[in-house]
């Protein structure tokens, strides 16, 4: 019982942290680039980046299967690289969580970078600082509240991902069974006691994470 209870919790937290770190890196890069850039097709690209936020999870899962499945170029390449298909693996769950969590990180980080006074960055350029130094020592520190908030929201969203994960990663106990899928199976099998324990655990973790966003100063 104890092993059954803790396994999806540990897996969900590990997947959410991994996905959170990936979206943090991607969000910083794309958020900074999109914050002040104006170019043809920007509206289309931004809409594309935010699309997973509004798409049904089943659609996201279907698209991931098409992109990373064994019949796709990407899926074939990754299978040759790793020696196994990407679907129904731990990394499949990470990819699904990353895709659905990214829009929250991106929007938060981009908004944070847009609030940075560009005169401060221009002054640093005048003093001879390169773009990476400006990004690392000026842009990020001045946007840290938005960055941390974006990470927390992304982590919480990744923790609760269900539909796309179920379709793309499956529900393999100890391997890809996360909290949401474990709750679904527990309810389906009539094990309401275990389902309630997982539900309360999810609510507790999510509540703490969301409450912490209001404490960021």
TrEMBL record:
PROSITE patterns: ABC_TM1. Part of the binding-protein-dependent transport system for molybdenum; probably responsible for the translocation of the substrate across the membrane. Keywords: Cell membrane, Membrane, Molybdenum, Transmembrane, Transmembrane helix, Transport. This is Molybdenum transport system permease. Belongs to the binding-protein-dependent transport system permease family. CysTW subfamily. It comes from Fredinandcohnia salidurans. The chain crosses the membrane at residues 12-31, 43-68, 88-106, 134-155, 195-216. Pfam families: BPD_transp_1. InterPro entries: MetI-like (IPR000515), MetI-like_sf (IPR035906), ModB_ABC (IPR011867). Its main location: membrane. It is found in: Cell membrane. It comes from the Bacteria.
